[in-house]
Amino acid sequence: MTSALPGDGKTITALNLAASIAQGGRSTVLVEADLRRPSVSKLLGLVPDVGVTNVVAGKATIDEVTQAAAGFDVITSGPIPPNPSELLGSQAFGRLIDSLLEKYENVVIDTPPLLAVTDAAVASVVADAVILVCQAKRTRKTELRRALLGLRAVDANIVGVVINQISIPGSSYYQYSYKTPTPRRTRGRGAGGQSGE
């Protein structure tokens, strides 16, 4: 799961996707691969000190950093590293995702915005599918086009675009929030896998 720009709603969309899959009875885990502006731990009320960076650095096991949310598991970013792109492009990160795919039916990966840094494009290489999130009346066509070109440059499997904040006459506006820590699990090698702000 990714977006063109910060603030387009990719993290919330990733959380909603993980929750929806888990409600269908499939084991699901959300991996926070936005290592620059992580927000999942705050949104879900989880411990932010351990996560992806600890596992990739070989300082913790997957079980040690996995936390329970509302029906699915979460691995937060962990401490912010000095080299996010390098870390996400490492073999260790690929091994982390492979290990999760052996344990969960679905892995949803929340990555950084594409146009801000190269992290999302790098991380999308390990994802089976990528979903691009954009915001109505905010994301410009040129930005969306650049984001898509960036993903295509690394042969990412783009399966769809989510447009949020659409105003439909006569409809009500619904807002979702997450605060309850509970049990774990996701496959589908992430929605680009990966990544809402």
Can you offer a commentary on this structure?
This protein has 197 residues and is an alpha/beta fold. It has one domain (2-164): P-loop containing nucleotide triphosphate hydrolases (Rossmann fold, 3-Layer(aba) Sandwich), CATH 3.40.50.300. It has eight helices and seven strands; from the N terminus they run βαβαααββααβαβαβ. The strands form two sheets. It has a four-stranded mixed beta sheet with strand order 3-4-2-5, sandwiched between helices. Strands 1-6-7 form a three-stranded parallel beta sheet, with helices on both faces. The longest helix has 14 residues, at 10-23. The radius of gyration is 15 Å and the shape is globular. The model is unreliable at 173-189 and 191-197 (pLDDT under 50).
Task: Indicate the topology.
Blueprint: E1 2-3, H1 10-23, E2 28-32, H2 40-44, H3 52-56, H4 62-65, E3 67-68, E4 73-75, H5 84-88, H6 91-103, E5 106-110, H7 119-123, E6 130-135, H8 141-153, E7 158-164
Parallel strand pairs: 1-6, 2-4, 2-5, 6-7
Antiparallel strand pairs: 3-4
Features:
single chain; 197 residues; alpha/beta; Rossmann fold; 4-stranded mixed beta sheet; 3-stranded parallel beta sheet; 7 strands; 32% helix; globular; disordered C terminus
How would you briefly describe this protein structure?
The protein is an alpha/beta fold and 197 residues long. 32% of the residues lie in helices and 15% in strands. It has eight helices and seven strands.
